[in-house]
Amino acid sequence: MDRYTAILEDLKRDPQSHGGPPDGILLCRLREQILRELGFRDIFKKVKDDENAKAISLFKEVVQLNDAIEDGGKRLENLVRGILAGNIFDLGSAQLAEVFARDGMSFLASCQSLVPRPWVIDDLDLFKLKWSQKSWKKAVIFVDNSGADIILGILPFTRELLKRGTQVVLAANDLPSINDVTYHELLEIISKLKDENGQLCGVDTSGLLIANSGNDLPVIDLTSVSQELSYLASDADLVILEGMGRGIETNLYAQLKCDSLKIGMVKHPEVAQFLGGRLYDCVFKYNEVLNG
């Protein structure tokens, strides 16, 4: 803590002193470097493992509840609500870490207690319309947290894309950061969820790829992803950035060359104030790229 404080004081005196100017990505990188130098490499490993095991036990039930919704638009909205509810498992938020330590978190209860729409940024109705009109060939999803976030939020949505014939690339962190899921952890999760036929609750997964993003932070600089992911994303026509760090704090206004979706829950008061929303408000920002 003393060393990080000293670095912050250095940056106040000279914004270029540690590779500045200071922004969210640089401040996160300096923090992670100090933690790793002090031996803190995966401090939430046990919590992540426990939450992954709980979420895996609920996966089939969540998928069945989604599949039971016959209306495509309503099913999509339910899947989106699942992503937002899962995204609340974030130990990078001091308030949520305290609640988690005291009471734990219920995924199904979180689905029911999301702040009411319209959210602070709410393009869900537009996305539902496009969902009914077009089919994406390849989607790249930058995933966020372990536990309910990836397993009960992102993976049911991924499964729905696979059902529609979309190839899906899930991009996960190379190294641990807070309770974000890593590439190797995601491989293990997928292997546990697949049945003996390699399916996710009856859906073929031959179009599902897991990629190492090359990232080691809770935020992401899209100009410095791994060569593997850069290659896999070269023909993507939909990119999804999930979570506050990747989808809101560092890439909310990023202009991509294909359709993009930024989705996450606002879990810091300062971010809520900046957006003009409420704490635990939701962001669902869809940008369509029109060819020609």
UniProtKB/TrEMBL annotation:
<dbReference type="GO" id="GO:0046872">
    <property type="term" value="F:metal ion binding"/>
</dbReference>
<dbReference type="InterPro" id="IPR014444">
    <property type="entry name" value="PH1575-like"/>
</dbReference>
<dbReference type="GO" id="GO:0005524">
    <property type="term" value="F:ATP binding"/>
</dbReference>
<dbReference type="GO" id="GO:0005634">
    <property type="term" value="C:nucleus"/>
</dbReference>
<dbReference type="Pfam" id="PF01937">
    <property type="entry name" value="ARMT1-like_dom"/>
</dbReference>
<keyword id="KW-0479">Metal-binding</keyword>
<dbReference type="GO" id="GO:0015937">
    <property type="term" value="P:coenzyme A biosynthetic process"/>
</dbReference>
<keyword id="KW-0533">Nickel</keyword>
<feature type="domain" description="Damage-control phosphatase ARMT1-like metal-binding">
    <location>
        <begin position="8"/>
        <end position="283"/>
    </location>
</feature>
<dbReference type="InterPro" id="IPR002791">
    <property type="entry name" value="ARMT1-like_metal-bd"/>
</dbReference>
<keyword id="KW-0378">Hydrolase</keyword>
<protein>
    <submittedName>
        <fullName>Putative pantothenate kinase</fullName>
    </submittedName>
</protein>
<keyword id="KW-0464">Manganese</keyword>
<keyword id="KW-0418">Kinase</keyword>
<dbReference type="InterPro" id="IPR004567">
    <property type="entry name" value="Type_II_PanK"/>
</dbReference>
<dbReference type="GO" id="GO:0016787">
    <property type="term" value="F:hydrolase activity"/>
</dbReference>
<dbReference type="GO" id="GO:0004594">
    <property type="term" value="F:pantothenate kinase activity"/>
</dbReference>
<keyword id="KW-0808">Transferase</keyword>
<dbReference type="InterPro" id="IPR035073">
    <property type="entry name" value="At2g17340_3_helix_bundle"/>
</dbReference>
<dbReference type="InterPro" id="IPR036075">
    <property type="entry name" value="ARMT-1-like_metal-bd_sf"/>
</dbReference>
<dbReference type="GO" id="GO:0005829">
    <property type="term" value="C:cytosol"/>
</dbReference>
